[in-house]
Amino acid sequence: MHSWRDVLSVSARTDVDRMLSAALSMAKQQLSGSSEFDPFALVTDIDGRLLAADVDLTGLGRHPESDKIADAATARLRMLAPTARASALTVNTRLSERRTDAVEVRLEHREGAALMVFLPYKRPRFGGAIDFGELMQSPGAREIWT
């Protein structure tokens, strides 16, 4: 069985690894100060710089739902695709079968890889540090470079 990594060049694997690390770090930081976070997007540009992708929330209302923000972020990533090498959309999600919350990172590279990575977490009842579980991954759908 082939891994998603097998279809990528060394530089593309580096892009995906850097992007995943940055996305998880940002999500953990946001969760340390709040019970959840709004979806956010990252791109690796043609020159290899890791950048936050600004998402236009105009017209989504005062307190838009997460799925609407994720849709707007996906649209923005599609617009940036011609000048990007990789993208990540990070959302706060619920893993129903495991009865836990998780950070979900939807990664995609222009060379062809698309995957979803989940980092389950549990909050302690009475304060304290968040308990993060083991990373899980599954194949993703290509949404940016189609």
Overview of this protein structure:
- The protein is of the alpha+beta class and 146 residues long.
- It has one domain (4-139).
- 27% of the residues lie in helices and 32% in strands.
- It has helices at 10-33, 66-80, and strands at residues 40-45, 50-52, 84-95, 100-109, 114-122, 131-132, 136-139.
- Strands 1, 2, 3, 4, 5, 6 and 7 form a seven-stranded antiparallel β-sheet that branches.
In a few lines, what is going on in this structure?
The protein has two helices and seven strands. With about 150 residues, the chain is an alpha+beta fold.
Beta strand % = 25-35%
Q: What is the alpha-carbon Rg in Å?
A: 15 Å
Average pLDDT reading: 89
Biggest sheet features: 7 strands, antiparallel
Stretches where pLDDT falls below 50 for ≥5 residues? none
**Helical segment tally?**
2
Q: Helical content, roughly? A: 25-40%
When the domains are counted, the total is: 1
Instruction: Encode the helix/strand succession as letters.
Output: HEEHEEEEE
Overall body shape: globular
Q: Terminal Cα separation, in Å?
A: 24 Å
Which structural class fits the helix and strand makeup?
alpha+beta
Give structural attributes.
146 residues, alpha+beta, 7 strands, globular
